[in-house]
Amino acid sequence: MSQEFDVVVIGAGPGGYVAAVRAAQLGFSVACIENWKNPKGELALGGTCLNVGCIPSKALLASSEEFEKINHHAAVHGIAVSGATIDLAKMHARKDGIVKKMTGGIEYLFKKNKITWLKGHGRFVGKQDAGYKIEVGGETTETVTARNVIIATGSKARHLPSLPVDNRIVSDNEGALTFDTVPAKLAVIGAGVIGLELGSVWRRLGADVTILEALPTFLAATDAAVAKEAEKQFKKQGLKINLGVQIGEVKTSDSGVSIAYTDRDGNAQTLDADRLIVSVGRVPNTDNLGLENIGLAPNERGFIDVDAHCKTSLPNVYAIGDVVRGPMLAHKAEDEAVAVAEIIAGQKPHIDYNCIPWVIYTSPEIAWVGKTEQQLKQEGREIKAGQFPFAANGRALGIDAPEGFVKVIADAKTDEILGVHIVSAGASDLIAEAVVAMEFKAASEDIARICHPHPSLSEVVREAALAADKRAINM
User: pTM for the full model?
Assistant: First the structure.
């Protein structure tokens, strides 16, 4: 007789493992199916995010930023450094150690909360009165029964049909985290979050980086003022960003890659590089799940259709994270995970998707929540906006990070905060104040009247809120 569980979660990434933990906290018997294997062939929890995504990339970003500070920013502090070198093997070992600690932490949480880890690939095989039958194919194959199922299988890198990825010369995000040498010339197709972050890592370590982007505008999803400032800062650092290009034939050899493309003016160009990173988005992992065996099918884009509460068209089957509509963000998946577990328990949680923050971990960082000025104007909304630069902030000057600004957008009549956009060091932390404010439907005046520590970067958030009412103090 197969094992039976109240809740079975397919996938143990940020959405899946959080769903499993919360469901277990609520008293359900829970199993989580995961078949991820690390480069050593060991089964590991955490999915893409912890193993080859968010966590290792941020570790490399931090290491490369330290290297850049030593080489290019120490002198301003009166610190003379010469001959600094990089040990890539040691840098990767540090990154891998962090990943192992984090994935091991999830395994501890599973044991603590009595969650069964089913090691294998999960696939629906049918439904019966007791629940959904799921086959788990690993070293051995078993079938379990789930009264409720949460699909949290995440996403994978989108590849270009005519450009095979070997993760040596041509890499996706996984291969770009494991370069064994710093390429002299690095090409990146795609100026999105991943392309900018990975391009920044290898530029800091010495690569000459050129980014090719098909869209005619830079970071089109961000506020126009943010995109303009970010592009200026990245180009100042040495990233070469070419917009509006059309990729043609890509030729690879054992020693490099040659990319033919048409620039935005229609001119034929060729870019030769040692290595190429393909970063053109991600696609949901909905193949080979046996969805057809229970009467469920992904839509034309490969996503699983769900309602506002992550319910599919089938009873007791939910889907969260990268396999459903909305931003492909780990923290979005985590919030949906908690909500679905609580819905199964009969509670009534709520997620305000407009209050989910976005972050790009470049230097300076880029973070925002809510709507952009261009979006609000397209909606015909009457708004007011306040902007304040970090160049006028004592703490920013003290840490030699004067780049960027905070922009607060509020309703012109009610003063409700509609969006906050930040380009700065530590933007990923500063944005949290804005998220809290928007969740509580705060006005810009509410932030303006709250005492912020001095000197601190957070003072700029307050000054931007004051500026929305044309009463900034330090400008």
Answer: 0.96
